[in-house]
Amino acid sequence: MAQASDSIRFILNDREVALSDVAPTDTLLDFLRLERRLTGTKEGCAEGDCGACTVLVGRLTGNSESLVYETVNACIRFVGSLNATHAVTVEHLAASDGTLHPVQQAMIDFHGSQCGFCTPGIVMSLYGLWLTKDNPSRAAIEKALQGNLCRCTGYEPIIRAAEAAAKERPSAVFDPITRTRETVAARLKALRATETIVIGKGEDCLIVPADTAGLATVLAEHPAATIVAGATDVGLWVTKQMRPINPAVFINGIAELQKIESSEAGLTIGAGVSYTAAFEALVAYPTFGALLDRIGGEQVRNMGTIGGNIANGSPIGDSPPPLIALGATVTLRSKDGTRPLPLEDFFIAYGKQDRRPGEFLESIFVPALPAGDRFAAYKVTKRRDEDISALLGAFRISLEGDRVKTARIAFGGMAATPKRAKAVEAALLGQPWTEDTVRSAQTAFETDFQPIDDWRATSAYRMLAAKNLLMRFFLESIGEEAQLQRFEDVA
Amino acid sequence: MDKSTFEERQTIAGPMHSELRHDSAHKHVAGTADYIDDIPEPAGTLHGALGLTDRAHAEITDMDLSTAAALPGVVCVLTAKDMPHSNDISPTHLHDEPVLADGRVQFHGQPAFAVIAETRDIARRAARLAKITYRDLPHMIDVADAMAGGGELVTPPLTLQRGDAEGELERAPRRLKGRMRIGGQEHFYLEGHIALAVPGEDDEMAVWVSTQHPSEVQHMVAQVLGVPSNAVTVNVRRMGGGFGGKETQGNQFAALAAVAARKLRRAVKFRPDRDDDMTATGKRHDFLVDYDVGFDEDGQILAVHATYAARCGFSADLSGPVTDRALFHADNAYFYPHVKLTSQPLKTNTVSNTAFRGFGGPQGMVGCERIIEEVAYALGKDPLEIRKLNFYGDGNSGRNITPYHQTIEDNIIRQIVDELETSADYQARRAAIIDFNRSSRVIRKGIALTPVKFGISFTLTHLNQAGALVHVYNDGSVHLNHGGTEMGQGLYTKVAQVLADSFQIDIGRVKITATTTGKVPNTSATAASSGSDLNGMAAFDAARQIKERLVAFAAERWQTTAENVTFVPNHVKIGEELVPFAEFIGQAYAARVQLSAAGFYKTPKIHWDRSAGRGTPFYYFAYGAAVSEVSIDTLTGEYLVDRVDVLHDVGRSLNPAIDLGQIEGGFVQGMGWLTTEELWWDEKGRLRTHAPSTYKIPLASDRPKIFNVRLAEWSENAEKTIGRSKAVGEPPLMLPISVLEALSMAVASIADYRECPRLDTPATPERILMAVERLRGR
């Protein structure tokens, strides 16, 4: 069957939808509420931070072709990014006879709702967890709820509901997704575009390339296009700043960008790999997994990509500092070929990156951590989870005997770009790895950084905490407990 | 006669004191509970957006709205001059709060115009196209600025005084002075403000608005339009959270929607974006407390002199009663033999601060507990010891008079604290923590037990009234309406339980209906934790009236006496005969018995003379206590709340499940206020924490890791409240003062507990680390 190239086609609950009149900025939330009057999904913040708009989106993953359902924030999910997906809203959960899903019933039984406005979103997040985990720990439940704010309950009854629902596993008849998994997978396969989708005219258009070659061609034609991967940042340009993003190029469906390749030399992560998908690979680097778990909420991690976190050039992105400390390089690609670049050189100044017109970020290479190297990344925030870093420090050292042989230290939140602490590195090199060395190296932070005051922290706090993170790194290296942990087990 | 049903089931479903689920729980989880934005819009509904200014204090010299008006899809642009009758929505009638800024901007983000357009998106875009020219004026953003700038007040201050505080301070063996900064708080109701106005015939206007105070919206809309109140009907079925933020702050959106609807003869909806909502609506007041305490070597407090200065914003709003309530709780549960307390409701060029769960009480109490901490650290004692030493005494102790000269008659704080101290194993855990801190280099722990005593009643006495309207239809089904609003707290459920209990019918027979000014007039805000006390009693009164008529009818029809007519589960028992309720009602209808009643209630006993600072402003007190244990990281200031134990008094609970939810939820909300929720203004007076990306309320992973919450089941209200229950909305918010103090203890360990860390709030990781740094080396 020939794939239409001028419409976005997806499944909404139990109906197939084909949309040929979609603006680049149309969000899934507005589509649900205004076009389809599916008002169970709520708008709480329109920036992906409260989770009231949580829905599930099912998609066929990369090469494995398995159908996975992930929670996403409908408020910053663009309709243009939905081709060949299955969007599931709260209205789809109950059986046709009105019998509630076990997750919904548990939320009632344990008094998990008060005002009820966050509840559909919480139900969807718990449903996403229910689908993937049989017997979730409290850590896993909290992780699933990191992107959902509730202002009424204090969460305790919601946690209890999640635990109780996990035990309720009625036959697949009760569960809408389990019931239709195979047929939906087949339908999504059929909906997959084999050529570029273009909706709109001239520069006022949205484009969905089918592969990287198509993407390179599109960018050659539209060098000023907005590349939209997870939309966890671009979404806010639209909902908050009301900036036009046309022509918008949606790349979240490009399978080639979602590959993770592992070799002895290291990991190659496609720029379109989500935080969630990257977790399994990056967890091999100590503390990196725990760090990823503190980026956004689950919904944001399911949408947002490592590539986007780099390409948007934010000084407070969480993945660049550890990647820089690990010595990562990036590959930029255009119609004319590819160009490798050390990640630290990609960041030129605030808001300015070394990405030429027509180029896109294709992949990130993370060298394997040499045996004997010690690595850790520490994120410091006002609120532990789902908060933007006040500062983030990543440390990697190797010793020769008791002396520091190599040191790579990078920070976010301390300068206008993610930046190495070269003076600190210099102060450590060749010195014995002792508390005294660390103390004297701490002052070098003042050479490397002049952080600013803002709502996340004062300059003084950032500086002091940065120095202390080096001390934490040292203390942990000698086996002292120097960090709080809410749970022993990782979700 | 049907006996079978009765014999099978001797009780009704959903009586008072049962653990009934929230009436909308099923709809919440199914996504079928309609909030105002979910109601189908009338054909042709237009959408409004606020035009915000970007100066903290300025004169508007020119406002060019032509570009905004010219954007395709824009229908009209409103300014202050378009208000048909009045541009004033000051809830206290001080005429200091315009709907739209008129020539003068008083805070960064104050709305100066509104755009009405075919879609919300167009309205929002157009609202950014105005060209406003300003002449800047000096601005004052925080309390210190305001004090330095002359200390202009938005409303008259209050002084509470008993004895000779100044004299006793001079004579006290020990004396300490200090200052504490207490941060404000954004409500962050998940459903933002919203109003939909639909014009009717003649001067009529129907408004659906997310408000805790429909009657006030009604009056404000009428005032702005220049129509009598009877022309305006305000409706609200439920809010997606309120917490005080929808007591007065919805007025503006309702007024603007109504003005546009009147002008354009079309339905108009205002739903501000979250950022606009957080920028343009008021929050909890932040305070600067200056305290001076005299005490003896045992830690007995002899005199307290304190000033509570508050950032009120540009207008009074509710700042008068809020700062009053701060003083009413500046004693918390402690007797001050000599006391002088003064409020300073300061004017600042910030959004006008407003009601927020606790209404000033929490700030009063936090200041009070700082004083206790100071005394304890000065004497090297456990703060709990100082607390116990200073608790209010019982009737004959001579130590039961508050700073406002009310005698406390229902004091149970000692029972609560003693029971909790034991059940939470406070002493052993404290000893273990002190031991742990001796040997732990980076991680330090703290534990604290703090009490709560919270006064229940509106301090403006006349607000303590409520109405209900109850119909019994001739099929025996019951329609319930009252003046209270549902914001998630379970008020509708509790009042329905009262009605089911009164008639002894299953709660399924009671239809809960949306609050509307057309059914119950002149209501007070659902606020001050008073919802079920007031409306439960009003519904009870309505049921009483109908039941009296029914009893009289039965006595006559069955030729018996009134004593022989009783309401039993789903039946009426007349002599030995059981008549099913519906059948009985059918007969009463046929006999022309009036089956509808308007109930009314006013709280007895209370009175308050503000100018004298004397009276009995509170009908009773609610009590509670919490023990919190925390760990801090002394390298970064990060922390975890490891365990919390709560024992809280709700009298005889109307619904233990709902009350437990209020306590848990209130605790976590109060903990957020004292820990991670920080409002941050830049030097231009612009609030930079105006969205959840920058303003951090607690997540599931912030709640206490171990969280044991119990009701004091032995407690019963000494006063004749509905079912002898107690109010529960606000008091639990203050339980997490124990978290703040536990954090403080962990910090104090750095200097061997010799010095009070003087931790200001919110106690962010930054404040913790900076406090640790202050204490290092001392």
TrEMBL record, chain A:
<dbReference type="InterPro" id="IPR016167">
    <property type="entry name" value="FAD-bd_PCMH_sub1"/>
</dbReference>
<dbReference type="Pfam" id="PF00111">
    <property type="entry name" value="Fer2"/>
</dbReference>
<dbReference type="GO" id="GO:0004854">
    <property type="term" value="F:xanthine dehydrogenase activity"/>
</dbReference>
<keyword id="KW-0285">Flavoprotein</keyword>
<feature type="domain" description="2Fe-2S ferredoxin-type">
    <location>
        <begin position="6"/>
        <end position="96"/>
    </location>
</feature>
<keyword id="KW-0479">Metal-binding</keyword>
<feature type="domain" description="FAD-binding PCMH-type">
    <location>
        <begin position="199"/>
        <end position="371"/>
    </location>
</feature>
<protein>
    <submittedName>
        <fullName>Xanthine dehydrogenase small subunit</fullName>
        <ecNumber>1.17.1.4</ecNumber>
    </submittedName>
</protein>
<dbReference type="InterPro" id="IPR016208">
    <property type="entry name" value="Ald_Oxase/xanthine_DH-like"/>
</dbReference>
<dbReference type="InterPro" id="IPR016166">
    <property type="entry name" value="FAD-bd_PCMH"/>
</dbReference>
<dbReference type="InterPro" id="IPR012175">
    <property type="entry name" value="Xanth_DH_ssu_bac"/>
</dbReference>
<dbReference type="InterPro" id="IPR001041">
    <property type="entry name" value="2Fe-2S_ferredoxin-type"/>
</dbReference>
<dbReference type="InterPro" id="IPR036010">
    <property type="entry name" value="2Fe-2S_ferredoxin-like_sf"/>
</dbReference>
<dbReference type="InterPro" id="IPR002346">
    <property type="entry name" value="Mopterin_DH_FAD-bd"/>
</dbReference>
<dbReference type="InterPro" id="IPR005107">
    <property type="entry name" value="CO_DH_flav_C"/>
</dbReference>
<dbReference type="InterPro" id="IPR002888">
    <property type="entry name" value="2Fe-2S-bd"/>
</dbReference>
<keyword id="KW-0408">Iron</keyword>
<dbReference type="InterPro" id="IPR014307">
    <property type="entry name" value="Xanthine_DH_ssu"/>
</dbReference>
<dbReference type="InterPro" id="IPR036884">
    <property type="entry name" value="2Fe-2S-bd_dom_sf"/>
</dbReference>
<dbReference type="InterPro" id="IPR036683">
    <property type="entry name" value="CO_DH_flav_C_dom_sf"/>
</dbReference>
<dbReference type="InterPro" id="IPR036318">
    <property type="entry name" value="FAD-bd_PCMH-like_sf"/>
</dbReference>
<keyword id="KW-0560">Oxidoreductase</keyword>
From TrEMBL, chain B:
<keyword id="KW-0479">Metal-binding</keyword>
<keyword id="KW-0411">Iron-sulfur</keyword>
<comment type="similarity">
    <text>Belongs to the xanthine dehydrogenase family.</text>
</comment>
<dbReference type="InterPro" id="IPR037165">
    <property type="entry name" value="AldOxase/xan_DH_Mopterin-bd_sf"/>
</dbReference>
<dbReference type="GO" id="GO:0005506">
    <property type="term" value="F:iron ion binding"/>
</dbReference>
<dbReference type="InterPro" id="IPR036856">
    <property type="entry name" value="Ald_Oxase/Xan_DH_a/b_sf"/>
</dbReference>
<feature type="domain" description="Aldehyde oxidase/xanthine dehydrogenase a/b hammerhead">
    <location>
        <begin position="30"/>
        <end position="138"/>
    </location>
</feature>
<keyword id="KW-0500">Molybdenum</keyword>
<keyword id="KW-0560">Oxidoreductase</keyword>
<dbReference type="InterPro" id="IPR008274">
    <property type="entry name" value="AldOxase/xan_DH_MoCoBD1"/>
</dbReference>
<protein>
    <submittedName>
        <fullName>Xanthine dehydrogenase molybdopterin binding subunit</fullName>
        <ecNumber>1.17.1.4</ecNumber>
    </submittedName>
</protein>
<keyword id="KW-0408">Iron</keyword>
<feature type="region of interest" description="Disordered">
    <location>
        <begin position="1"/>
        <end position="22"/>
    </location>
</feature>
<dbReference type="Pfam" id="PF20256">
    <property type="entry name" value="MoCoBD_2"/>
</dbReference>
<keyword id="KW-0001">2Fe-2S</keyword>
<dbReference type="Pfam" id="PF02738">
    <property type="entry name" value="MoCoBD_1"/>
</dbReference>
<dbReference type="InterPro" id="IPR046867">
    <property type="entry name" value="AldOxase/xan_DH_MoCoBD2"/>
</dbReference>
<dbReference type="Pfam" id="PF01315">
    <property type="entry name" value="Ald_Xan_dh_C"/>
</dbReference>
<dbReference type="GO" id="GO:0051537">
    <property type="term" value="F:2 iron, 2 sulfur cluster binding"/>
</dbReference>
<dbReference type="InterPro" id="IPR016208">
    <property type="entry name" value="Ald_Oxase/xanthine_DH-like"/>
</dbReference>
<dbReference type="InterPro" id="IPR000674">
    <property type="entry name" value="Ald_Oxase/Xan_DH_a/b"/>
</dbReference>
<feature type="compositionally biased region" description="Basic and acidic residues">
    <location>
        <begin position="1"/>
        <end position="10"/>
    </location>
</feature>
